[in-house]
Amino acid sequence: MRKMDQIMAYNQEFVKKRDYEEYLTTRFPDKRMVIVTCMDARLTELLPKAMNLKNGDAKIIKNAGAILTSPFGNIMRSILIAIYELNADEVFIVGHHECGMTGLDPNSVITHMEARGIPDNVIHTLRHSGINLNRWLTGFDSVRESVESSVDIVRNHPLLPPSTPVHGLIIHPETGELEMVTDGYRHLESLA
């Protein structure tokens, strides 16, 4: 059976048995927090458990590496919507050890794209139309520095309420142990 068929069959039973009822909540995060973290599959259940979160406690935004690359990109927009429209009042950037974005080689990614059927002329056209594929596909050398950089982008955003704590953490993908990189409360106190 194909993956989509398996999912749809399972979902019909899930709804029929009313298994969704234990997950009922509102769209407003109960713990009033927004988390930016990595899409790594090891964190799907581990991160919420390690942070003592249940369904409905936080808005969780995932991408490759928990990286914010632009103050006016999709991730920052989602953070601001969570704050202004969904009552979040704290931001957590959570990177992790052993991240696939550590040392990611953009040339290797492009080689894999070509091996999976993306024609050379598409890569060539993108490169000559002002898109810096190497920069766009580059990872980072240090998860700590990446978290610090993302925290700085959020903290210094002109549309972020000045009293918003922005924290930086690193989680271990096997044990769930959290390491604090930057404490948002201390940062705000240092500005007072």
UniProtKB/TrEMBL annotation:
E.C. number: 4.2.1.1
Keyword tags: Metal-binding, Zinc
Residues bound to Zn(2+): C38, D40, H96, C99
Matching Pfam families: Pro_CA
Top class in the EC scheme: lyase
Co-factor binding details: Binds 1 zinc ion per subunit.
Cofactors demanded by this protein: Zn(2+)
Cross-referenced SUPFAM superfamilies: beta-carbonic anhydrase, cab
Any GO MF annotation of the entry: zinc ion binding
Chemical reaction(s) catalysed: hydrogencarbonate + H(+) = CO2 + H2O
Record InterPro entries: Carbonic_anhydrase, Carbonic_anhydrase_sf
UniProt record similarity statement: Belongs to the beta-class carbonic anhydrase family.
Name of the protein described by the UniProt record: carbonic anhydrase
